[in-house]
Design brief:
- The chain is of the alpha/beta class.
- The chain has ten helices and nine strands.
- It folds into two domains: 61 residues, Orthogonal Bundle (Helix Hairpins), CATH 1.10.287; 205 residues, no CATH class.
- The strands form two sheets. It has a seven-stranded mixed beta sheet, with helices on both faces.
- Strand 5 and strand 6 form a beta hairpin.
- Helix 5 packs antiparallel against helix 7.
- The radius of gyration is 21 Å and the shape is globular.
- The protein starts with 9 loop residues before the first helix and ends with a helix.
């Protein structure tokens, strides 16, 4: 949870400054435990976050490692420690069968992030490391959102890839007449055809009247996903089995939440760790695709889809 560009740092969860001494840190931890304990009327989710924050900074060794990796050191991030969490992963040789994949997951969002953070931080000067945690953490929220979205899309892409050759996925698909309107992933599986939205909103969300609601919510992601699915369905002359919204595990109440039909489309809210199970078993009521039909649907999509 602390690795998201949008999530609060361990120090923010505990309510102290990163420069606080060990005694102050310990007192803050005990206070936050009392404030958030469910037995005294606190929020269980926040109580768990407090405990996880303490695990990251509660000892000298753990705190030193956390500070180096997250940019809280006296001189900023330690460049001798490689921060892998926010940088795009380098390709690694892997001979295992993978899902067929088209497009670049998270590519559009990473491009936008790099452009904006260099403009914001550099002001005409080259930025040595746009992924420096100390820099990213201080960037405006709209810039951090772009990186969070890219990471979420890349995480989904890795999960689908591991499902094997029976699956095909298209990433960053144009949905509608405007290139800015997109569906993060279109997945063709034996269990059905699905449009997927990969999100990281920086905190827990709920569903109300078929839409995500939360402290940071200002848009309508489920409605936008369904509109994108319909646009692709018309263009490719294919039938989607459902819409899947994927969120970080910490941000959902239950791993798989079937919402029924939202705006006429079967919709599922899934924790990231549960996505593979959803795609394998399918969405309740979604028509399975097999035999020659799967080749026909794949051909139609390959001919019709465009990428942002």
């Amino acid at each position: 949870m602390f690795d998201s560009p949008l999530s609060a740092s361990a120090y923010e969860v505990l309510g102290v400054d990163p420069t606080a001494d060990d005694d102050t840190l310990r007192k803050a931890y005990r206070l936050r435990l009392r404030q958030t304990h469910p037995d005294t009327g606190g929020d269980a989710a926040v109580f768990i976050r407090v405990q996880r924050a303490w695990a990251l900074v509660g000892t000298a060794d753990a705190r030193a490692a956390y500070d180096r990796g997250h940019g809280f050191g006296a001189t900023g991030a330690d460049t001798t420690v490689e921060w892998n969490g926010w940088r795009a992963r380098a390709a690694r040789p892997d001979t295992r069968p993978k899902a067929r994949s088209y497009g670049q997951p998270g590519g559009r969002r990473r491009e936008q992030f790099l452009s904006l953070i260099r403009e914001w931080a550099g002001r005409g000067v080259e930025v040595p490391d746009p992924y420096d945690p100390a820099l990213v953490r201080t960037a405006p929220v709209e810039i951090r959102c772009l990186l969070a979205d890219a990471l979420a899309e890349e995480a989904t892409a890795r999960i689908v890839a591991e499902l094997g050759m029976g699956y095909t996925v298209w990433h960053d698909v144009v949905a509608g007449r405007h290139a800015g309107h997109k569906v993060d992933h279109v997945v063709l599986a034996p269990s059905g055809l699905y449009g997927i939205l990969s999100e990281d909103l920086g905190g827990p969300v709920q569903v109300r009247r078929g839409e995500l609601v939360g402290d940071a919510m200002t848009a309508t992601p489920i409605a936008d996903l369904i509109a994108g699915i319909r646009a692709i369905s018309r263009a490719a002359r294919v039938r989607f089995g459902g819409a899947i919204v994927v969120l970080p595990d910490d941000d959902v109440v239950q791993a798989i939440d079937e919402l029924g039909k939202v705006r006429g489309v079967r919709t599922v809210l899934a924790a990231r760790s549960a996505l593979a199970n959803v795609l394998r078993r399918g969405v309740t009521g979604a028509p399975e695709i097999g035999g020659n039909e799967i080749f026909d649907v794949r051909t139609r999509l390959n001919e019709a889809l465009r990428f942002v």
